[in-house]
Design brief:
Length: about 300
């Protein structure tokens, strides 16, 4: 294969990848929104659940309609409102700085009663507040949101009036899962392309795995951090510049480290392998997000 042909193939792969991502529509309110789902294990028959948030979160938005307030038990609602103290107030009943969607009553399901709070008013720091039918008040310790869209499980202790978290996202496991979801398919795809370009495997196996390990660690760190903190839409937006950086790194590394073929073939292989694996990564990000951000 001639040098000019290899360069044209590499350039074509890069241009097609950029063009494919550039046509994706972006709207101001598109994509998933922040969310927190609280699953109450063995819930009482009748109770209300709200979030206590710091008073620094201003009350610009009332998150219960007049109809929803009228449908509430007045004594239980008053008990929630009475918990405004020590620098905390209720998110649904009193209000938040940004709109918050949610309900005081949960959705009964096999795993317990699920309460989902969503949209831009979801707090990063909060306490869980529960009022039962007999007006018993239970609260949790201060909790910090770990993931853009997360689910936690809690159990109630009526004797102490406390709410304990029994299950929450493990951030280290999220990074490990993201790495496994992207590294294995990437290595398989790029190894097949290595064979298609007739690059000697024995001479270059260590280089191949070393370069892929380094770039996938970089990809995992940035993409998982983005999925955890900002969600899928932001991850898609940074995919193109990140993949271009990885493309430049791998083209440079392979140009100097691969053996047994011409420099032009090494560069062409790097371009082809990265564009194909990046296209696959576009779909793998969605898979990774499905187990990082769960509501």
């Amino acid at each position: 294969m001639k040098r000019t042909s290899l360069k044209r193939i590499a350039a074509s792969f890069v241009v097609l990848f950029i063009a494919a991502l550039s046509v994706l529509p972006v709207h101001a309110d598109m994509g998933p929104k922040p969310g927190t789902t609280i699953v109450v294990e063995n819930p009482p028959d009748v109770y209300y659940l709200d979030l206590l948030i710091p008073d620094s979160e201003y009350e610009f938005h009332s998150n219960l309609t007049e109809e929803e307030r009228a449908a509430c038990d007045p004594e239980m609602l008053a008990a929630l409102e009475a918990q405004r103290q020590d620098g905390w107030h209720t998110a649904l009943v009193t209000g938040t700085a940004a709109p918050l969607f949610g309900s005081l009553t949960g959705v009964r399901e096999e795993r317990g009663a699920a309460h989902t709070f969503s949209y831009f008013g979801v707090p990063d720091t909060y306490r869980i507040l529960i009022v039962t039918e007999d007006l018993q008040v239970m609260t949790s310790e201060i909790l910090t949101k770990k993931v853009f869209q997360e689910t936690i499980r809690v159990k109630l202790d009526p004797e102490t009036g406390s709410i304990a978290v029994t299950e929450s996202p493990s951030v280290p496991l999220l990074y490990l899962g993201q790495f496994a979801a992207t590294f294995v398919p990437t290595v398989l795809v790029e190894f097949l392309i290595l064979l298609l370009f007739r690059i000697p495997v024995k001479k270059n196996l260590l280089v191949f795995f070393g370069v892929n390990l380094a770039t996938q660690l970089l990809l995992t760190g940035i993409m998982t951090s983005t999925l955890v903190s900002s969600g899928l839409l932001t991850a898609y937006l940074i995919l193109l510049p990140l993949e271009l950086v990885i493309l430049a790194v791998e083209m440079t590394a392979y140009a100097f480290l691969l053996r047994g073929v011409s420099k032009a073939r090494r560069i062409a292989y790097a371009a082809a392998a990265n564009v194909v694996s990046a296209a696959a990564g576009f779909f793998l990000i969605g898979i990774a997000d499905s187990f990082i951000n769960i509501l």
